[in-house]
Amino acid sequence: MANKKIIYRCFGGAHSSVVAAAIHLEQLRTDSLPSDAELMRLTLFDRQTQDGHGLMHFLGFDERGMQVYCLGCRNAGETVERVLLQVAEVLGVREELFFVDTLHCVTFKMRIGGYLSRRWQLIRIGRPFVLDGTRKAFPALVKLVEKVKKEVLT
Description:
Layout: E1 5-10, H1 16-24, H2 36-40, E2 56-61, E3 67-72, H3 77-91, E4 97-101, H4 108-119, H5 123-153
Parallel strand pairs: 1-3, 1-4
Antiparallel strand pairs: 2-3
């Protein structure tokens, strides 16, 4: 179990995957919505650059010793996942990788805010949208992480 690597992936690796990983690592409480300050304290939250796309960012070990990562794949998420799983198969470590797509949890405000903040560097305009949208997405991200933790145990 300790060799398992959980990889949360999304478009840019700056919002939903970062928050899901933080929930998984118990860096955010799940019984209340996070504040702006709590979200902004997360590594990479609304800070990822285009140079970081395609890189797996290690964020920590969970309570079972599993490694947790986030990954921004742009529009190639499924392709990246397939390639990495095939490489892992060739290397004999396929069972160690567990990919989680967080894009279905992303809200419209997160998309708009992320585009403004990360793509156009209009941070003062985009960040409030991202923060509000992330809080709206938070319950869905919590459910996703709970599902992942159950699936990984089986």
